[in-house]
Write a structure and sequence with these properties.
Order of helices and strands: EHEHEHEHEHEEEEHHHEE
Low-confidence stretches: 221-230
Strand content: 15-25%
Radius of gyration: 19 Å
Mean pLDDT: 83
Distance between the termini: 25 Å
Structural class: alpha/beta
Number of helices: 8
Largest sheet: 5 strands, parallel
Helix content: 40-55%
Shape: elongated
Length: 230
């Protein structure tokens, strides 16, 4: 899941972003409304965490533009005002949810995950395939009942492949969905992460390499064969 955090208070922005990254989300940051719109127009974000009281281009106008341009992102609006009138106004602008500062991080995470599920085609909170179960709400994964100790990137790659429901995801697809925009990653990072993930998943192999195309979840049959080189 990709999230854009827009907040002019640097400490709060970084706190939110780092927390979401620890919970296996790919997060980009912006400090003002103009930068936020530029990022939204260029990249696909599942959720926009938007401070309402931004300097320059106000958060209200950012929200209006998201709706006007039909940018495919869910909006969680943050504000210091908790009045009913303010909440109604924010939702009336097109925001999908509203959270008043100060807030508990766990509540913000729960709201972001809920919006992320709504941003994509309806899927159950527990994704399953080839004996693997990924609980997207609890951020846990098992295979044949065995708990998997996955890093946040490994978890996010496995979630992306399961959400694809057998479709092939290229290295670029995985980088876009799992890694942050402002870091220089290569396809080698994808290969290294997949290699570690495969080792933790164990046999039979369930992640197939499709030569020249990318990766997908296979049947995980007992032959251990995949669609290409590991």
């Amino acid at each position: 899941m990709r999230v854009l955090v827009v907040e002019d208070e640097e400490f709060l922005r970084e706190m939110i972003a780092e927390g979401l990254r620890r919970d296996a989300l790919a997060v980009d940051e912006a400090s003002d409304g103009l930068e936020a719109l530029q990022r939204l127009r260029l990249g696909a974000y599942d959720v926009l965490v938007l401070d309402r009281d931004l300097p320059g281009l106000h958060g209200d106008e950012v929200c209006r533009q998201v709706v006007r341009e039909r940018l495919l992102t869910r909006v969680l609006m943050l504000t210091a005002s908790g009045s009913v009138r303010e909440r109604v106004e924010g939702l009336g602008l097109g925001a999908d949810d509203y959270l008043t500062k100060p807030f508990a991080y766990d509540e913000l995470l729960a709201r972001v995950l809920a919006l992320g599920r709504r941003a994509q085609p309806a899927l159950p909170p527990v994704l399953e395939g080839a004996g693997v179960a990924v609980d997207t709400a609890r951020r846990s994964a098992t295979r044949d009942g065995r708990r998997l100790a996955l890093s946040r990137k490994e978890f996010a790659v496995l979630e992306a492949l399961l959400r694809a429901e057998g479709a092939v995801l290229s290295s670029d697809d995985l980088i876009e969905q799992v890694w942050e925009e402002d870091t220089s990653y290569s396809t080698n990072a994808v290969r290294v992460t997949l290699s570690k993930l495969r080792a933790k998943l164990g046999e039979p192999s369930m992640i197939e390499t499709v030569p020249g195309a990318g990766y997908r979840i296979g049947r995980g049959d007992r032959s251990g064969r995949s669609g290409g080189p590991q």
